[in-house]
Amino acid sequence: MTASPTNGTPGAQERVRVLLADDQHLVRTGFRVILEVEDDIEVVGEAADGARAVTMARVTQPDVVLMDVEMPGMDGLEATRLITGEGPGAPAVLILTTFDRDDYLFAALRAGASGFLLKNGTPEELVEAIRVLARGDGLLAPEITRRVISTFARPGDPTGAARSGPDADAALGELTPREREALVLLAAGASNAEIAAAMHLGEATVKTHVSRVLAKLGLRDRVQAVVFAYENGVVRPGG
């Protein structure tokens, strides 16, 4: 896939490539109008259903896919799973929906989405979300993060976490005590500055710990670290 900018300023050397996936033509047109006025963003294609989104992602090699949930045929959740399952270099997926539903949220996160925004957000929020994902970070609105932390692995909940498997146990075993501490704080929604304060470290050291945690666990971003931590019992709601 096309390499995303790595100097912290997307577009300094190359533009962020975005694929639009939504079954409503007017919605896709609106997104295109919003994004194409930005010097650092390029819309490289459009798809009206999930199957087409998967194909277009392989053809256009975007950095970020803007994905609707409810589309005819293959929905956005299955398309997300297939796109993010392509391995290293797969694009980040930003889920956009008019439906503020936990089942969509949890399914999208488990499918590998790196961000989740409601369509009633502002154009500025959408543009910034794309830039965040292009930098390799994950993004959840604060109210969504709170719901993840409070309900993701709630006992008896149909969306509750699966228990840790051998692969996850082995990966967790590779973490140093400080890296595991950083993972716990990540799962609580702490920022790098908050992790640094809690661990009495500099932010540069925290960034190194977080990067190593993601690499050792085979995770794309902080959002997936939250999912992993709850699914594998590293942390529990209220714990």
From TrEMBL:
SUPFAM superfamilies: C-terminal effector domain of the bipartite response regulators, CheY-like. GO terms for biological process: phosphorelay signal transduction system; regulation of DNA-templated transcription. Residues 168-233 form the HTH luxR-type domain. The modification 4-aspartylphosphate is found at residue 68. It comes from the Bacteria. Keywords: DNA-binding, Phosphoprotein, Transcription, Transcription regulation. Residues 17-134 form the Response regulatory domain. GO terms for molecular function: DNA binding. PANTHER family: TRANSCRIPTIONAL REGULATORY PROTEIN NARL-RELATED, TWO-COMPONENT RESPONSE REGULATOR. This is DNA-binding response regulator, NarL/FixJ family, contains REC and HTH domains.
